[in-house]
Write a structure and sequence with these properties.
This protein has 16 helices and 54 strands. Among the domains are: about 100 residues, no CATH class; about 80 residues, no CATH class; about 200 residues, Elastase, domain 1 (Roll), CATH 3.10.170.10; about 100 residues. Strands 1, 2, 3, 4, 5, 6 and 7 form a seven-stranded antiparallel sheet that branches.
Length: about 950
């Protein structure tokens, strides 16, 4: 379940297109007659040059010849010093074609997604350049001197990941260990610094790249989070998951020939003087028998699922299928589990055990996928250089079934399946999908977030399904030909079981869903069929062989890491031209993209039913505030390169917004306002400070300083309320009386207590409290009167397992509560009078109308909940939306019918709500004065 991170315009003005940067003024690129030149977006270097045949140095190495071509045509490419700023990533040759990929560097620091490709042909001793493509960012001037060190970056990356996982909740999983030891949650995540990188926003943002690993303490799902921390102020400006899953995480899909591996390291192939392979058979989950390439271990007298045969001629890698049935998925994600071995059997005929586990499926299918790429595209293994292909089969989740599969950058990991779903290796298109992620990573390396991530998923779906359809002999005219994962269900029909349908005939850019990177990594699965559907249409119309060659050539030689749908269209058309298609066939390619709405400027057609207060915030995870007829939000500049500042304006849209925060290089985030005062957090290189300033203007005051982190700011009158983390992983609600200067934690900051999700009205503070009971830790909502110093635990109707956000109104306290940890995240909306009487659930946790709720805000008239509808399939209707109830719970209405994600709701007054909306593909601050009602 997504947990409320903001929609992020991470690398430009379009929130969900990591490379859609505001255009710079570019001089016309010089090119010979007949050449096609597509200008770059946010750069003076062209995004695509094709239909050229310009002589290049035939005696030089391909990378040197390519760089010399770029240097000699500086007027076209605007790359002043290719020898200094372009580092070769790889060179691929074959049939006279040469493709050189370069990584852009800015004063020696890699540029995230900055890749440029040069395509050449060399025949009869002569070499010509036939085209170029990619993103080289010409406007970078950022300093490469870091203001923070690696340990601070790691601490903040781990903290922001823990906050993202936790969301605005307090759970029994947060219970701290006694005697000041770290909490289970704090110990669950670790971070690794990978050094500096330049994020290509405007003039560039220098960041430290940190990978955070571990497990989500609430769900057990593996965590492999890529976090980029601003290297000057220490604020995490970009984060996304590095695990490339078959479906969105948290959802259900409709003796060896080598020495034992060291921890975290995959085994290497054993040397062999003679060909060690033997032929065998295995039973698939469906009961069919398939041939297997095996290895006979004489010392153990057993046959192993290790295949040397496929790569024997190259003398390099092997294909191995590993028994991971006792391995938790977190131990298999981004690392190599200890103690596992390849599947083995006393004879060469693997029978029932191999069928039940999905091992035979995985091993046979890996060979099928290898053969497809080798025979159809001349590719030697996933990386094109003969790498080992490792499949881990049967992983579980805390000992329970795991229904998903993923590529983690090293290997394929397949879940065990459950009573409804077979082991995830049991469908060839699933295996092809995951292995294709490895191919993508070694070619275009499409960043797995937003539109580039949706392209990544689309390409994996396309080739996975193409391999499956061809192997099964399914006609492209078959209505079920486009189904992904249709063979996974044990009893359901293929169409009912399928995860996606590439041939649904309906998905276009009009169906695009703007969501946060915390939701499906920015829609990588939600939006993938927009693009994969176009590729599938091309396959239907042009035939499998030609369509596959076009799609593969576009991936290998044209696409680069930050490309979105429009660049994908251009790359595919250019690849088709290069392969010599006819004019009629080229029209078929263009028509497929047109039919799916992938045309230049398609994002501009997305509309909304709300009133825009401020467009294109270009911020990430920063929240909103509202109250007293005013809003407060964090913004950056037009290209997203400046540290965030806080602005405030009227919720009726009248007048111009005001800049509230100072321009001091810090990141100003998490704002809150009561209409008279704005408070916010300022992230700097040494501390995180809470600042305050009157809406009408005046001096800025520092009211609190933290060396760990704060979130959940609220303000009413003289009281500022917030949640601070302590060094041991627990949380404490603190408050400051700005009139008297009094500062205090509501729980005294004691290590054995945790408090969070605080709110304030007048002199009353409400919050969730985790405290030791007679036999175990207990949860409750407590109110604290700052004038008397008295506290009161409010009544509960059951045994809470988790508490969500609280809110205090004129007469009531309301909060979210989860009393059934097994119901998939549903929460009740609970209310009492301020004195604790009148306990009532105004929205139930179970039954009709129960919501997957995780955010709450309230005025004296209405409660607004951020929630998903009760469904397990990602689609527009089940993305985070705003639902509004009167305080008696007599009616539930949708606040807005906008497509896309709605997050960070803040109640103003009456029924007016302010929130961040992703419908138009950017981070827009919007409002509605009253609910839209039913969205039918």
């Amino acid at each position: 379940m997504p947990r409320g991170a903001a929609l992020a315009a991470l690398l430009g003005s379009a929130a969900l297109v990591l490379g859609a940067l505001p255009a710079q003024a570019a001089a016309p690129a010089s090119a010979p007659p007949g050449a096609e030149v597509v200008p770059g977006d946010g750069t003076a270097t062209p995004a695509l040059v094709e239909a050229i045949a310009e002589p290049a140095d035939a005696t030089a190495k391909p990378a040197d010849a390519a760089r010399r071509h770029l240097a000699d045509r500086e007027a076209r490419y605007r790359i002043a010093d290719p020898g200094r700023d372009l580092a070769p990533v790889e060179t691929r040759t074959g049939g006279g074609a040469e493709t050189v990929r370069f990584q852009q560097k800015h004063h020696g620091v890699p540029v995230l997604g900055g890749q440029y490709v040069v395509r050449m042909e060399k025949k009869a001793g002569k070499r010509v350049v036939t085209g170029t493509s990619g993103k080289y960012f010409t406007g970078l001037t950022a300093s490469t001197e870091a203001g923070i060190d690696a340990p601070l970056a790691v601490r903040r990356a781990v903290a922001v990941t823990a906050s993202r996982l936790r969301g605005a909740t307090l759970t029994k999983a947060d219970a701290v260990r006694t005697r000041g030891k770290k909490s289970a949650r704090a110990a669950a995540l670790t971070g690794t610094d990978h050094g500096l990188v330049v994020i290509p926003r405007g003039t560039g943002v220098l960041a430290r790249h940190v990978t955070v690993r571990g497990a989500d303490p609430a769900t057990g799902e593996p965590v492999l989070q890529e976090v980029y921390v601003d290297a000057a102020a220490g604020f995490p400006v970009l984060q996304y998951s590095g695990i490339k899953t078959l479906t969105a995480q948290g959802t259900t899909p409709a003796g060896t020939p080598a020495k034992a591996a060291a921890a975290g390291t995959a085994p290497a192939a054993a040397p062999a003087d003679d060909f060690p392979g033997v032929k065998g058979t295995g039973l698939r989950v469906d009961g069919s028998q398939v041939p297997l390439d095996l290895y006979y271990d004489r010392s153990a007298d057993r046959y192993l699922m290790t295949d040397y045969a496929h790569q024997w001629d190259s003398g390099k890698g092997m294909i191995s299928t590993w028994d991971a049935r006792d391995v938790d998925v977190t131990a298999a994600s981004g690392r190599w589990p200890d103690g596992i071995s390849v599947f083995s059997h006393p004879t060469s005929d693997f029978g029932k055990a191999a069928a039940q586990s999905g091992a035979a499926d995985a091993h046979w299918a890996a060979g099928q996928v290898y053969d497809y790429y080798k025979q159809k595209h001349g590719r030697s293994s996933l990386d094109g250089r003969g790498m080992n292909i490792d499949s881990l089969v049967g992983v579980t989740l805390y000992g329970q079934p795991y229904v998903n599969a993923f590529w983690d950058g090293r290997k394929m990991v397949y879940g065990s399946g459950d009573s409804e779903y077979k082991p995830l290796s049991a469908d060839l298109d699933v295996v092809g999908h995951e292995m294709t992620h490895g191919v993508v990573e070694s070619t275009a390396n499409l960043v797995y977030a937003g539109q580039s991530g949706a392209l990544n998923e689309a390409v994996a779906d396309y080739f996975g399904n193409a391999i499956d359809v061809d192997a099964s002999g399914t006609s492209m005219d078959d209505p079920d030909a486009g189904l992904i994962g249709e063979d996974l269900c044990r009893t359901a029909a293929p169409r009912d079981c399928a995860l996606r349908d590439l041939n649904d005939g309906a998905t276009t850019s009009k169906n695009f869903l703007g969501v946060a990177f915390s939701t499906d990594n920015g829609g990588v699965h939600l939006n993938s069929t927009i693009y994969s559907g176009a590729l599938w249409d091309i396959r239907e119309d042009l035939g499998a062989d030609l369509a596959d060659k076009i799609a593969y050539r576009a991936l290998e030689a044209y696409l680069t890491p930050l490309d979105g749908f429009t660049e994908g269209r251009n790359a595919t058309i250019a690849a088709a031209r290069e392969l010599g298609v006819t004019a009629k066939q080229l029209k078929v390619v263009k028509r497929a993209f047109d039919a799916h709405g992938i045309v230049p400027g398609w994002e501009k057609a997305l509309g909304a039913d709300s009133d825009k207060l401020l467009g294109k915030l270009n911020t990430s995870g920063t929240g909103t505030g509202a109250g007293g007829g005013w809003w407060a939000a964090s913004t950056s500049n037009d290209d997203g390169s400046e540290p965030y500042s806080v602005r405030a304006g009227r919720t009726d849209g009248k007048g111009a917004p005001k800049v509230i925060s100072p321009n001091d290089g810090r990141y100003h985030v998490y704002p809150a306002t009561d209409g008279k005062t704005v408070v916010w957090a300022a992230f700097g290189s040494t501390s995180v400070d809470i600042l305050s300033r009157p809406v009408a203007g005046g001096p800025i005051r520092t009211v609190w300083s933290s060396y760990t982190g704060v979130e959940g700011l609220r303000v009413d009158g003289d009281l500022v309320v917030f949640t601070e983390y302590d060094p041991f992983g627990s949380q404490h609600v603190g408050y400051v009386n700005t009139r008297t200067g009094k500062q205090e934690y509501v729980d005294g900051g004691r290590y054995h207590l945790s408090t969070a999700v605080g709110s304030v009205k007048g002199t009353t503070i409400a919050y969730g409290k985790l405290y030791p009971g007679e036999t175990e830790y207990e949860l409750g909502v407590e109110v604290f009167d700052t004038t008397t110093g008295k506290t009161r635990l409010l009544p509960q109707s059951g045994n809470p397992q988790a508490l969500g956000q609280t809110a205090v109104t004129k007469d009531s306290v309301v909060w979210l509560v989860d009393e059934n940890a097994e119901d998939g995240g549903r929460m009740a909306v609970r209310r009492t009078n301020r004195d604790g009487t009148g306990l009532k659930d105004i929205s139930p946790e179970s039954g009709d109308g129960a919501l997957f709720a995780y955010g709450l805000t309230a005025s004296d008239e209405a409660v607004t909940v951020t929630a998903q509808a009760p469904d397990t399939v990602y689609r527009n209707e089940t993305l985070p939306k705003l639902w509004q109830l009167p305080l008696d719970g007599s009616r539930v209405q949708r606040v807005s019918c906008n497509r896309g994600e709605q997050s960070y709701a803040a109640a103003d007054g009456g029924k007016r709500v302010v929130w961040i909306d992703g419908t138009t593909g950017s981070t827009d601050l919007v409002t509605r004065e009253r609910p839209a009602g039913n969205c039918g």
